[in-house]
Structure formats: structure tokens, C-alpha cells
Amino acid sequence: MKEEKEKRIEEYESKIKPVVEEEIEKEKEIEKNKVKEINEYINCYEKENNIQIKHITMKYVKGCKEKAFYKKITSTNCIAVYAEASYDGVINFYTGRKLKEIEITEELNQKYEEKTRQIGENIYCCVDDVLICLVYVV
User: Fold this and answer.
1) Got the DSSP string for 11-56?
2) Which of the chain's termini has less CB crowding within 10 Å, N or C?
């Protein structure tokens, strides 16, 4: 009985492992492309405003299930959150930046809201020397 159970587990793992690995590779590619886009935005912002982005903060948005997950990730075994809480680590890793994570303040939030009224909502926005990233939570 125990051997049969172990055999079923091995069979399951051998079937699921390639699927999960493929999904993880898709997720990495999506993240890399999104971070490249964010870094280009930061570079333009820094040049236009003669300022260096030094900090990063998260603005959490609840109730946006359709925006919370990567569209191209289909495996239920690989949960890929689109704007995960490790945003700072991913951005720093792919860009070589050393953005310091800070808490979003009421003042920063107000400036973000004012700016997005002008340019529209985006998953990231620079305010002063801070990159603000939206994190969608289900």
C-alpha cells in the first residue's frame, strides 16, 4: 500500500514538474519585460525632472482579481501574482538599482492620486524620489 502511494506521488510529480517549470519561466520573462518597461519610465522621469529615484513603496489595491494574476500563466500549481509584494526585489535585481523600500505616507498617496488624475492609473508612478507600485490583492 505504501509503495503504491509513493509510486502515485512520483508519477504525479513527474507529470506536474515540467508544467510548473514552464510556468515559472513564463513568469520570469513577464517580470523581466515589465521591469525593463518600469526602468525606462524611471530613466525618463529622472532625466525630465533632474532627480534620482531612491525609494520604492507599494500602494495596495483590493478587489481587483482580474489584475492580480499574470494572464499568460495558466497552471493552478504556479500562483503568479502580477504585482507581488517583492516588487522592490525584482526591480532591484533586474535593473541593478538599490531602491530602498519605504512606507507610503498620506502625503505621497495624495501626490500619487493627483498625478494619476492627470495621467491615468498605471501600475507604477514616480512621485518626488519615490517609485510607487500598485499591488493588486484579491
Assistant:
1) HHHHHHHHHHHHHHHHHHHHHHHHHHHHHHHHHHHHHHHT----EE
2) N
HSE (side-chain half, CA atoms, 13 Å) at 51:
13
**pLDDT per residue as tens digits for the range 77-113:** 444 434 444 677 888 988 999 999 999 999 999 999 9
Task: Say how many C-beta atoms besides its own lie within 10 A of residue 129's C-beta.
Answer: 13
Q: Fill in the amino acid letter for 101.
A: E
Q: Which three cell numbers stand for residue 40?
A: 525606462
Integer CA distances (angstroms), 70 to 7, 55, 63, 129, in order: 33, 25, 16, 28
With residue 133 as reference, give the H or E element that holds it.
Answer: strand 130-137
Q: What is the pLDDT of residues 42-70, one digit of tens each?
A: 999 999 999 999 999 988 777 654 444 44
31: left (phi over 0), alpha (psi -120 to 50) or beta: alpha
116 pLDDT more than 90? no
CA pair distance 87, 83, nearest whole angstrom: 7
